Structure formats: C-alpha cells, structure tokens
C-alpha cells in the first residue's frame, strides 16, 4: 500500500477535530483569502508541508513554505552557524522580498522560536501567528530554555564549536512525531538533516507580543504525549492573548493527517 493511500485511509479513520474545526473546507470569500507562511520544525525543511500546502491552495488560499538556512535543500548554507537569529532573518527577508502583508505565520515545533523572533522584529507584515504544537518563547528564551539542564549543556557545548545536532534516530520517530509508516519514514529519512546547535541556544531578541494587533493562536496536536509540549500548551491555555485549539493528530500532523491539519488552521484563521 502506498504512503498516499495509507494517509488517505488514516485521515478518514482519525475522527473529528477536537476543536471546533470544520469537517469540510468551503472556498473562502474574496475578503477571507489569506496568505499562509508555513515554517517547518527542527531537522526538517519545506518538504514537511508537501501534503498540507496543496490543500490550503485548493481551499482558495496562497501559501509559501521557506526552508530555513542550514536545513533541507539549504543544508549546505552555513550549516553550523545558521542559528535562531539567521532563521528569524530568513523569514523576515522572505516577507520583505516577496512583499507579503497581513500573512498567517505558522510555526511548527522549533519554528515557534522563529515565529516569536519574527513577531519581535515588528515587521508589520504578520496579521495572525499560529504556533502549531510549538515552543512559545518570550524575550530572552529559546528552545534550550525548555529542555533539561543536561541537554541544554550539550547544546551549548556544540554551539560553541559551530556544531550540529543530529536528528533523533528513525526508530524513535513513531513516539516523537507519530511517523510509524515505513514508507513515510524512509521518505523523510532521505530529507532530514542535522541542525545547528546555535539555533537551539540563541534566544528571542525583543518582546514578541508587543503588538496587540497581531492575533495569536496555539494549535495543539492532541496525540503528542511529549510532556514539554503539553506543559507549553497548558501555559498558553492560561494566557488570554491566545486562542487555543486542538487537532486530532500526533506532532507531525501536517504529514500524517494533512486534511485535518488544514481544516484546523483554516478554522483558526
């Protein structure tokens, strides 16, 4: 059975969204069309959105999926020095060079750090920021803020030498990301790349939530048991600035349940 066939069957069997997300996605009115900028998580690349982006476009929206420096097809670009500051500039530059405005900026997992950094840059180009099962750092925080001290020390040691953090081994991807299909894992394994430790240790510069005109949402993957992300989600639920919703999927929901993830993003938007 092909990956596409398995994913189609999985989407049917997965059930309704846990949040108030539509089961079907009607075409938006002209004024409701949005441009989505989708930012991938650690070790991934733009390829992580291959199953979700076409569905957003079919629903009448426009989409861009920039790959962060040092990852994916850009893995040759300053791989050990492409830290969070560079990744924030990747997206700020993308918004500026493509002349994008009023965008829905979506950050998955690690890219929550990138989204916070972009919001802190106050470009005036983001209308709505959606953290998709992501870290939500504030000023002076980064990914390393959320991990145990021993792991943080390893990241700092690697970052000092412009080192790379290897991706978790494929046999852990089912538990970590929900990727259990052998074909999908083989497909992803050919695309996963190490990531600069500097991207995990650098911190957000400035207050990401200083502009009250930017809408803030958090979309939690309900099947992700990772206690770190559960703690982040619990904190967001107590923050009145955020709208909170859940989607019935594991951490890499955009690959595993792209139809449900698309409906959830549009419902928030």
Could you walk me through the main structural features you see in this protein, from its secondary elements to its overall organization?
This protein has a single domain (33-268), classed as Alpha/Beta hydrolase fold, catalytic domain (Rossmann fold), CATH 3.40.50. Helices cover 36% and strands 14% of the residues. The chain is built from 11 helices and 8 strands. The chain has helices spanning 3-13, 53-58, 84-97, 111-120, 149-160, 173-177, 182-189, 198-201, 227-237, 253-256, 258-268, and strands spanning 35-39, 62-64, 103-108, 126-132, 164-165, 195-196, 215-221, 242-247. A 6-stranded parallel sheet has the order 2-1-3-4-7-8, sandwiched between helices. Helix 3 (84-97) crosses helix 4 (111-120). The longest helix is centred in the middle third of the chain and has 14 residues, at 84-97.
Q: Could you name the CATH topology?
A: Rossmann fold
Query: Helical region count?
Result: 11
Largest sheet: 6 strands, parallel
* Mean of all residue-level pLDDT scores: 91
Q: State the shape.
A: globular
Strands ordered across the widest β-sheet: 2-1-3-4-7-8
User: How many E-type strands?
Assistant: 8
Instruction: Identify the CATH homologous superfamily.
Output: Alpha/Beta hydrolase fold, catalytic domain
The percentage of residues in β strands lies in: 5-15%
Output the radius of gyration.
17 Å
What is the string of helix and strand elements?
HEHEHEHEHEHHEHEHEHH
Structural class: alpha/beta
Alpha-carbon distance between the two ends: 34 Å
């Amino acid at each position: 059975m092909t990956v596409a066939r398995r994913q189609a069957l999985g989407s049917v069997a997965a059930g309704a969204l846990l949040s108030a997300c539509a089961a079907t996605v009607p075409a938006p009115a002209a004024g409701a069309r949005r441009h989505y900028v989708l930012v991938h998580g650690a070790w991934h690349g733009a390829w992580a959105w291959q199953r979700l982006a076409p569905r957003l476009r079919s629903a009448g929206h426009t989409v861009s999926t920039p790959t962060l420096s040092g990852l994916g097809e850009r893995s040759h670009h300053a791989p050990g020095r492409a830290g969070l500051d560079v990744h924030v500039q990747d997206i700020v530059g993308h918004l500026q060079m493509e002349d994008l405005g009023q965008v829905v900026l979506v950050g998955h997992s690690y890219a929550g750090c990138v989204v916070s950094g972009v919001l802190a840059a106050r470009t005036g180009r983001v209308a709505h920021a959606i953290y998709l099962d992501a870290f939500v750092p504030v000023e002076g925080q980064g990914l390393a803020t959320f991990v145990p001290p021993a792991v943080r020390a390893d990241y700092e040691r690697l970052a000092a030498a412009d080192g790379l953090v290897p991706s978790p081994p494929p046999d852990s991807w089912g538990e970590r990301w929900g990727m259990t299909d052998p074909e999908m894992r083989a497909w992803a394994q050919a695309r996963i790349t190490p990531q600069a430790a500097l991207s995990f240790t650098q911190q957000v510069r400035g207050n990401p939530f200083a502009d009250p005109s930017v809408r803030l949402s958090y979309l939690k993957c309900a099947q992700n048991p990772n206690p770190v992300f559960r703690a982040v989600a619990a904190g967001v639920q107590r923050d009145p600035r955020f709208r909170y919703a859940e989607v019935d999927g594991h951490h890499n929901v955009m690959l595993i349940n792209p139809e449900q993830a698309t409906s959830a993003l549009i419902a928030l938007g």
